[in-house]
Amino acid sequence: MNVKPFSTERLIEPSGKLLLVLLGCTLIIGAIVSEYAADVAFGQSRLLFPLLASAVLTALLGMAIVPLLVRLKTGQIIREDGPQAHLNKAGTPTMGGIFFVPTAIVLSLVWASFYGRISPDLIAVCALTFGYGAIGWVDDWQVLRRKSNKGISPRLKLTLQIMLGLLFAGWLFWYKSPAITHVSLPGNVNLAFGWLFLPLAIFVLTAESNATNLTDGVDGLAAGTGAIAFLGLSTILTIDYPDLAIFCACMSGSCWGFLVHNRNPATVFMGDTGSLALGGALAAVGLSSNNLWALFIISGIFFVESLSVIAQVGYYKATKGADGKGKRLFKMAPIHHHFELSGWGETQVVGIFYTVNVLLVAIAYLFR
Quick check: is 155 in a domain? Predict the structure, then answer.
């Protein structure tokens, strides 16, 4: 019996529209199941309605703002050393984070006020999210102004992230210490960090935001995985942190609504304005709710994306010869580009990453 070798050509390549619909169904089912699991009456939905409201409003706003971004000539500059198939994306407007991130922030505050649950935690998380989005906006603006791939320097960007992270971590330490400095792990393990919580929190914030930034390289990838990750966190927080759960539901819905315009073929990119805000928001929620272990599992895709870049650079330097050239561990990093250059279509990469992220959320929920 002859068995044909596996080939990426045998993989189903879904359309961007199909992925959008399947993701939406997954998010809706996840929100409903989570509420019933938490014994929350459907008529007083805490997650589903904020999710849907954010998605609809973001999609509608995009219909007005995306054409405006086109008129303002905010077209993305595509790296020439990236996948050649991406060169035809040049000119697609970027900086889409300016409409889907504020939508989630505002709606979360409004929705939480209906329940009278606007806690200091929620205000601080919203402020941190806005701040990281502002850093991304400055970087995007410099890219457009200089008409190159280089915005503000990496050192300046990292410094700004650390400064905001220090403010947020310092507030957490002052407001919620000593409970916040005890990190819970599976098996009833409780680690007391004390003052070391400050550098830990800053690391989590900068690492998560930069990881989501690296993931934003294929149409719909960062927004879709972000939507899944936020809904995963919201299901874990529904009972103990209802206002943060609402925030996560709104962020998830806004990412989904943004995908109406960002799915393959994308008519707008989120830019650093969106990607840095997404990572900062995830990290801020994880830190505020003391759910770092769940955050780590849910952020598995982002972690692997970052790890692939670190491994690629490290391997290249370690194998550098007399000619100054080294070997590459992957065809290209981050790893989603490796899969593209291995013959996978963009939507195949996105679909598989979505599926993996859903499984990670399920694991985090079961072992929370």
Answer: yes
